[in-house]
Amino acid sequence: MFDASIKKRQASRPWGQWSLRAVALIYLSAMLLLPLAAVVSDGLSGGIQGLWQDISRPAAMAALRLSLWTAAVMTGINTVMGVLAAYVLVRYRFPGKAFLNALIDVPFAIPTLVTGLMLVVLYGPQTAIGGFLDRRLGIDIIFAPPGIILALLFVSFPFVVRTVQPVLTEIDLDQEDAAATLGASSWTTFRRVLLPALAPAVISGALLSFARALGEFGSIIVVAGNFPLRSQTAAVYVLSQIESDNQRGASAMSVVLLAMAFTLVFVVDFIQRRQERRNA
Amino acid sequence: MREPKGWVPKLLIGIAVLYLAVLILLPVLAIFQGAFAQGAAVFFESLNDPQVIAAFWLSIQLAIAAVVINTIFGTTVAWVLVRQEFFGRAFFNALVDLPFVVSPVITGYMVILLFGRQGWFAPLVKATDTQIAFAVPGMLLVTVFVSLPFVIREVMPVLREIGHEPEQAAHTLGASSWRTFVRVTMPGIRWGLLYGISLTLARALGEFGGVLVAGGAVTGKTETATLYIFAALDERQYISAYAVAVVLALFSFTVLIGMEILRKRTEITQ
Amino acid sequence: MCKLSPADSKGPGESRSRLKEGAAAIFLLVTAIVLFACGPQASSPTTPPTGMANKTTIILGAYTTPREAYGKLIPLFQHQWKDKTGQDVEFQESYLGSGAQSRAVVGGFEADLVALSLEADVNRIGDAGLITHDWKSKGAGGMVSNSIVVFAVREGNPKNIKDWKDLTRQGLEILTPDPASSGGAQWNVMAAWGAAKRGFVDGYAPEDDNAARQFLKDVFKNVTVLDKGARESIINFEMGVGDVAITYENEVLVAHRAGQKYDYVIPRSTILIENPIAVVDSNVDRHGTREVAEAFRDFLLTPEAQTVFAEYGLRSIDTTVAKRTQAQYPPVQDLFLIEDVGGWKTVTSTFFGPDGIFTKLLEQVQAEK
After folding, report:
1. CB nearest B209 (choices: A38, A102, A218)
2. ipTM of the complex model
């Protein structure tokens, strides 16, 4: 895409190009890099050792572990259901499809705090469903890990669906049909034809929903019990450290979360660029 | 696209419908039911409260300001990232996605670290006698940060697809850069841009964790609609909390769906 | 997350009129948005110092519990002030956990007046150099209201909770807020500690730190939710979580006013909660609001305001008001003060610091689960 003509054009009108680039890069640096630098330098003010000391406190470790495993469970469910929903929406015609498609955007529209609120209204111990689950089956949803997972499933549902959908649209039905005519079962067709083509999109979507879930706050603060070491997630831990004057602890956890987010974002970027090159 | 034949497709559709119904539709219905539990009159009454209106107004101001800033700079960033080649382009390109995955709490915390009493810019803040942390400007920074990627990410693929030939052609024909942008680039990207704007708007209106940390949730000063909901729960004003939640969700949802419909319609008519 | 929506694109081959139309529409939209947004944005935030203008604003940073009381007190004061000076006072209120509120003020939240749960949280603001006067010389040693630590239980007390000892019963679910952010939570911990040390918890040796520590541990084994503030904690209790909530007496009484129907139990031995109030010197001087902020503080100490506090469940610091409202506030067999368990100056670090007794204990409780 960056052929000689662009370079020539840049050379012929350098000032406009340069100033636009300067505006863009200064904006990104001021808005993204500067605040990141503030957190990272605060988190590392005691050196790597200090960071490790702050992060290895039992409450910090437990919060991190809780965030990681709930996000992982969510990502597993979300990936399967997201691919399924995308497939159904792209391949089949059925009544209520437009409505279903619109429903997928709902988590983008609903503030995460409201998500948490909705789950408490629906599954709280005083409600019909929550009360039934609690008394009859002994399952707690709100103020327990299932509530956290439900909230994460809700807020990150669109990620996989919306990354897979466009790719699926582009894959020819003929390929699937051809495989089917050649006697492949639908499962084999799915595994051998669809999955390889979808893999990059599915992985990107899954990783992004995982990364998104690690930082989720608004819905969690409502549905989790905030008990340190038991039901306090990493993001809520950061807030509790800010509020209890342990700035180093807050910064240390922030640095760890940011590092994970950074890594995931760059992995996704790498996958997508490789895919684009292959398509080109 | 085809009609579902046989039991496998039907089962798949069934699972998808059931999953979405339980995961998304049911909670939404529950909160609607909660908001209208005492009738429509109480619902509207609870919205017609000075504190609620002030909170909505602040949310709208912040969201619109974020939209303006991210539209102007976002379009510039998208254009530069697509049309120019320079050292570090890949890095900045990946960096744009970061706000999607940074916890809002950390976003708010960044504002405190930069502009709080002991922050990096504390001397500057003091010298100019402004207030950024625990005030509206800090909340604006948070809102711009969290909604930064949307315009860029929606405009970039469109710009890429158009290619640079039309812009180049306009230029060769003697159009100024500005004229080229307004007449050629802008019309090409407008749907991507509008979709990005609607996502920005929805995200900005729903921001909670970041504005809580950066703004301090002061009634009548730094209380947005989401922060009002949080406070109303504490005051046992359940109907009021649910009502504001319903209005916020409905508004964002209408914007998103409206965009989708508008886009489909234009695609068909052309 | 490059393509959240199926990327759409209009090719370059559109007609000229469409181009014009689209460009003009978008341009108008952006301009309109800029004008609309920049107008109010530019004129809104910072409060300019107001001398004796027609209107003044004071910012109140309070803890979560007295919310309803201030809801009634503020209009009363606004009327009085208007009658006296002809000036309108606007209030901006913030209610957070006491610790969180105090740290926000230290971090840069410009509250003119702080009404917190406990002295230590005011001291933190003083230590940061923001309160320079002797705030404890006002009111009853700087305090504006009192309360005690009680147990909220379900209607009819089905679990038959009578005293501290009952909280260690196996299988009981207890709510109490998080001492890291909530002042009420620290009062709760110190009340339990004091009751054990003073020999009011059967089965735990009096005057013995280890026994008291064991007692706290046995109680916290049963704690299921540790909320950020006392108010959040009691709200979750109302939503059906848990069997007992350790809380302020006034939380329960305010909930009763709001139509909630659950009971509460006063243990034989409990701590007297004393809530401080203080004007934040550096902020009132910056805003030019010293006069009105001090007037509001003094108003809160008048019998009139104290009666309102009593209506909203707080024990009055004014002896005549306390006497008049004593029917509502049963006496406690063994009521002790924070000074009896060491005073806030030592308690803050020895119990709630990073290596404090309580912090360590919480880690042990979880490790043994």
Report:
1. A218
2. 0.88
